[in-house]
Amino acid sequence: MMDRPAKEEYYLNIAQVVSQRSTCLKVLIGAIIVKEDQIIAAGYVGAPRHTRSSLDHGFCLRRKLQIPSGTQYELCRSVHAEQNAIINAARAGVSLLGGDMYIFGEDREAGKAIFAFPCFICKKMIINAGLKRVLVSQTTEPGAGRWRLFQVDDWVREWREQDILEDSVRYGRTE
């Protein structure tokens, strides 16, 4: 009898394949949204539709301007994978309420998995979209599991008790 991957691994593997379409020169990030065991949306980090990406231009504007990682997202050509998955669901008229998001990230240059925790903006969008859980890839360091699971209700509860910015600084993703 053949072993089947656990659903978490299965969906994270699909998010990894989606990440291969990324147009960011620094990271490959893919996100899928699953509801009732069905994939309802996918997105990768990339330029808005019908515009030129960093890959097309051959350089990263943020790097050229020496903007520190994790700051001034508005100067990035790309839309984050999580945002694109939510946007793609909206374009299709699909409700995300109660769904789960799977996010896989990889350092493009090193070819290694990264901790693909959502940035502050994406985290707020995930909450408002009504998603229930977020499963993210982790680094491939010894002792670390391949993924980590977060309950969106926990984020909301934590943000009720403390400043929402404190939490984003603790897990901040550098992209």
List keywords for this structure.
alpha+beta; 175 residues; globular
Give a description of the structure:
The chain is α+β, with helices and mostly antiparallel strands and 175 residues long. It contains 7 helices and 6 strands. Strands 1, 2, 3, 4, 5 and 6 form a 6-stranded mixed sheet that branches. It is globular and about 45 Å long.
Summary, kept brief:
By secondary structure, this protein is α+β, with helices and mostly antiparallel strands.
End-to-end distance = 42 Å
Question: By helix and strand content, what is the structural category?
Answer: alpha+beta
Please provide the ordered H/E string of secondary-structure elements.
HEEHHHEEHEEHH
Rg: 16 Å
Count of strand segments: 6
Largest sheet: 6 strands, mixed
Given as residue ranges, the uncertain stretches (5+ residues, pLDDT < 50) are none
Provide the fold topology.
Layout (H helix, E strand, L loop, with lengths): L6 H13 L7 E9 L2 E7 L9 H4 L3 H4 L16 H12 L7 E8 L4 E3 L5 H10 L3 E5 L9 E5 H10 L2 H8 L4
Parallel strand pairs: 3-5
Antiparallel strand pairs: 1-2, 1-3, 3-4, 5-6
